[in-house]
Amino acid sequence: QVQPVESGGGLVQAGGSLRLSCAASGSSFSTRSVGWYRQAPGKQRELVAEITSGGSTSYADSVKGRFTISRDNAKNMVYLQMNSLKSEDTAVYYCKWEVFWGLGAIEYWGQGTQVTVSS
Hints:
With about 120 residues, the chain is mostly beta strands.
């Protein structure tokens, strides 16, 4: 069992920055990938950024050049640095931690952290 916990959300003005953190706790797990997702009111949850066990990263087109995902393997932490924030970035941000399990993988979701960007 893995429990991801997000932190770092808040209220920021347009053009500002926030750094989200996702901390995973649990016993003896091997990470496959970690993704940051977001869900705005009335919209579907969407993938924002992802980092694999090999360190490869990918981003939604809407955040490329503004957001950076990174990790600290020793601490089981993943971060999302968000710069040049826009009002359309307002959403609840979730961390999805995927771990290897047998021949497949299991996903664990955090509870989310609210990001509000005021224009």
